[in-house]
Give the backbone structure.
Amino acid sequence: MFNIGDVYEQSFTITSETYGHFIQLSKDRNPLHTNSEFAIEKGFKGIVMHGNILNAFLSYFIGECLPTKNVIIHSQEIQFKNPVYLNDELNFKAEIDGYYESVKSIEFKYSFRNSDSKIVAKGKIQIGLLQ
Amino acid sequence: MFNIGDVYEQSFTITSETYGHFIQLSKDRNPLHTNSEFAIEKGFKGIVMHGNILNAFLSYFIGECLPTKNVIIHSQEIQFKNPVYLNDELNFKAEIDGYYESVKSIEFKYSFRNSDSKIVAKGKIQIGLLQ
């Protein structure tokens, strides 16, 4: 079911609905994410989307997009490399770079790229297979 | 404003509202998080809360609880150590374990503990200070 080198791709868009759900969830109204004047003054094109919206996309990827539902996340790591803006369409790509059958553990490396093919975030996820 | 060893504490509860917002945001309806029969069969007490809800709490901590709003997350790392259930009250504790003034960068180590004082998750966050 899983092999080293297996690649998964998925498209995610941060719509105003996504953004609104994240603010309701997190209550993070830091001005970088809510005040475009502030964000522009800090050198961005407009309000910057919360990086942790991408972590919610990782939850969907692990929970819903793999060939089995018997999974649980053990650890995650994410590096934010470029800003993500409202309505950005992100191309997510994950590759299995470790599969340890005896301990039922899988490691993915992944990246999110924007429509300019720039990496906006990348990292690793370790999951376990539930028995 | 920031010193190595500074400690921040915060309490977070995963209410059914929090859980609902996360499902709307992520669309992750994996049975571990939505089907209590499935979760119990897998050895848990009931449906397990999505780990990435804790990452949304980290967003709030960085965006709203520090002595300045001029912050941006550079990277995060989280390890899930024990399950979190609906209505669990979590004690979050973060400590500054690196402050690099010349590059305006701060590193925190953090943990979330449940009401039994068990660590449910821990990790590190690196942030930058915006000029």
The longest helix of chain B spans residues 52-64.
